[in-house]
Amino acid sequence: MTRAAAAALVVLTACRGDAGCAASCSAPPSATTAAPATAPIALAAIDAADAPAWARVEALAQPTVPPASSARLDAAVAAQQQAGGAASERTLVELQAWADGGGGLPRPDGPVMDVVPRGMTWLRLGEDLLADARLRARAAAPLLYLAHRMRAEGPTVFEVTLGQSLAVQVVQAVPDLPNAARLAPTDAEVVRALAADALFSVRLGALAGAAARGHLAAELPLGDRPDLRPEDVAALRAFHTALFASVPDDGSRAAWLARIDQVADDHADSPSIAVRRVAEALPEVAARMFQAVDAYAAALSRRD
Question: Where does 41-175 have alpha helices with state H?
């Protein structure tokens, strides 16, 4: 993963957004969201100055689908693990039941959650099912639904990007899916993902103490991992508040990319290394996510 494809915080990362995502992107070491060793930074102090503006980021970050049970999805993952990591009939049965029941993803029970391992687990589950000629045709529809849920409610850019990659792989492997157009990736999902990642990153950055810093160290994709200070958290929040202050122009993809470029340029010389890293990486991350929307559309057009 290149530096340009990864921002400074936890999971503002993106694979290439194509069918080779899993092969080119390895998950960082797993870490748990242990309670911080010291008291968290008081978010209220950060909230007070820009509460209305930050509320807009929170609103944009909300999942676009209602919460639903993840029990059968968890069972599908467990079945694959019990089969030694290989796709199995039991995996598909559980996944199909989850999709048929309108299942959802696990939702966090706190300010942060462990998202890198779970996203890679779902992607690999999908790739294993698609690679099995016995299961591929039946797995395609529930996998397309899984990709949709990852994009609609994933809390980070990383997870949404994996959902984009899985969707492209599904329609390339099984071209004639009835719901392929209805569950297509969209530009609106990209904007939501960027806002969700901002929210997630600021919340995680606001956790103080050795345990939280250890979580950051495990998740950051860069070699030199700065120890975030309260002023870094405030600066990150100011960066994202400026980015999502209003819908740019007509709200089109071009308008959002222009806004991202402008805000990134404005913060390129920020005293916060965390903000400088995000400003450096975000334009390419966003561009690649929009390109993944086009890659899916291109796959559909080749089907027709």
Answer: 43-61, 71-82, 89-100, 116-131, 136-153, 157-173
Single out the residue of 88, 114, 94 nearest to residue 33, CA to CA. 114
Q: Supply the range of the domain harboring residue 234.
A: 9-17+41-303
pLDDT digits (tens, 9 = 90+) for 104-119: 999 876 555 566 689 9
Q: Is the dihedral of CA 66, 72, 76, 77 positive or negative?
A: positive
* pLDDT tens profile 250-293: 899 999 999 999 999 999 999 999 999 999 999 999 999 999 99
Please give the radius of gyration of the chain, using alpha carbons only, rounded to the nearest integer.
19
Burial (CB < 10 A; 0-12, 13-18, 19+), residue 68, is: middle
Average pLDDT over residues 238-254: 92
Residues above pLDDT 70, as percent of the chain: 74
Other Cβ atoms within 10 Å of 72 Cβ, number: 19
| Cα–Cα dist 49/11, whole Å | 26
**Number of domains comprising the chain:** 1
Residue 96 lies in a domain: yes
Q: Any idea what the Cα angle at residue 120 is, between residues 197 and 89, rounded to 5°? A: 135
Do the beta carbons of residue 195 and residue 62 sit within 8 Å?
Answer: no
Task: Give the tokens for residue 227.
Answer: 């120890």
Choose between 223 and 86: higher pLDDT: 86
pLDDT of 218 strictly over 60 = no
- Tell me, yes or no, whether 219 lies in a domain: yes
